[in-house]
Structures are given as C-alpha cells and as structure tokens.
Amino acid sequence: DAMVIQNPRYQVTQFGKPVTLSCSQTLNHNVMYWYQQKSSQAPKLLFHYYDKDFNNEADTPDNFQSRRPNTSFCFLDIRSPGLGDAAMYLCATSRDAFNQETQYFGPGTRLLVL
Amino acid sequence: KQEVTQIPAALSVPEGENLVLNCSFTDSAIYNLQWFRQDPGKGLTSLLLIQSSQREQTSGRLNASLDKSSGRSTLYIAASQPGDSATYLCAVPNYGGSQGNLIFGKGTKLSVKP
Questions:
Q1: Distance of alpha carbon A54 from its chain centroid, rounded?
Q2: Is the minimum CB–CB distance between A86 and chain B shorter than 8 Å?
Q3: How many angstroms separate the CA atoms of B30 and A28, rounded?
Q4: How many CB pairs (< 8 A) connect A and B?
C-alpha cells in the first residue's frame, strides 16, 4: 500500500508557466519535506512543514512555494519555471522532526520544462 | 559544513558476488546515517538506518556498518542479484541545521550482471 503518493509522476510545463506538484500521505506524519534532485545529483532539501509551521531552506529560490492545507496533503508551487528547474521532485514524510526519525519518500515527480 | 561522499560513482559486478559500497562524511557529529535505494526515474526507498550509538544494522542480505570516529559507513550486499541493480545513496541529518534536513551523497550506481 502506497504511503507517500505523488501526482503527477511526470509533468511537462512551458517556460514561465506556473505548475503545482502534489504529495499526499497515509502515515499521519507531522512532517512533510520537498527535495529537488537534478540528474546525477544528490537530493537537496527545498523546505519542510512541521505540522503547519513552514521552514524554508536559506538557498531555496523565491520561485518555489509550498502549501499544506491539512496533515495529509502538501503542494509544491513553482511560480515561473525556468529550464534549470527541470528535475525530479521528491516528497518525504517523517513522524517527527527530530533528526533520529526515518524519512519515507514518495516515487517522485519528474518535471520537464520546455 | 557537512559533506557526504560516495565512491565509486558506479560499480558493475557479476551475479552472486558479495560487494561493499562506501560512504564517508566530514563531520562525525551525526545523529544517524541512512542508506537508500533509488531505481531509475523513481523515488527513494529506505534500506537501513543506523543510529549514532550503533555499529551496524542488518536486513536480509544487507548489512550496514557505521564508524563515526573515522566518518565512514559501508553497505555490504551479500550474494548480489540482478534485481539489486539501482543507485544506492547514503544520507546524514544536517547536525545544527534545519531539523530533518538530510545531506545526501551523490550515490553509487550498481549494476549486477546475470
């Protein structure tokens, strides 16, 4: 049974056209994360939510925003995608924000920007 | 600043061989270390998490070890199978940084030939 679900699995958008990626979880975890992974690179954290508390990484571009309307769902909004934003976007959850907690990842959404 | 390195970047072995993947980190003040598997175009699957107080963890044919003092971890795969072909990433929490921010290595791409 899928525990962290991401939709869509593949997304094609045009340069500058806003796009939203979706993540949902059935684990009832407090924390949800968004990572960006470019080709042959390590995943890089963009931001995370601890419950409703939003935590942005210092080097995350302003072009990236996130919403968490409830415990189960979290969205990644890219306001004006550039060619450099083409990547795999990974959603993850953890029960709590302590560093000892295991993170559970979804299958990812691969974004292509034309 | 914590840095995680995985060498080699790619590894090819014949089926049935035992193999070791390496992970090193620059700051030994870690809470834990986690090994993930990533299939092409897919998300991350957690394999093993070793707490800082532990020396090793085992799951089936996988055994992960941790030596904090030397900043090293190894993932041992016994009797490798073609189904083990994937990229293996290790990650540590960013001590002193954002809670839950995992610092990943770039991974080792494993190919097991039948």
A1: 13
A2: no
A3: 27
A4: 70
Which residues, other chains included, contact A22 with Cβ-Cβ below 8 Å and sequence gap of 6+?
A: A6, A7, A8, A73, A75
Non-local CB neighbours of B84 within 8 Å, separated by 6+ positions? B77, B110, B112
Please, which residues have CB within 8 angstroms of residue A88's CB and are 6 or more apart in sequence?
A36, A37, A38, A108, A109, A110, A111, B41
Cα distances from A60 to residues A34, A47, A96, A109, in angstroms, run 11, 8, 22, 18
The CA distance from B31 to the nearest CA of chain A, in Å, is: 6
pLDDT at B29: 85
Question: Which of B93, B15, B21 shows the shortest CA–CA distance to B50?
Answer: B93
B46-97 pLDDT tens trace: 899 998 899 999 999 999 999 999 999 999 999 999 999 999 999 998 765 5
The neighbouring-strand residues paired with B103 are B92
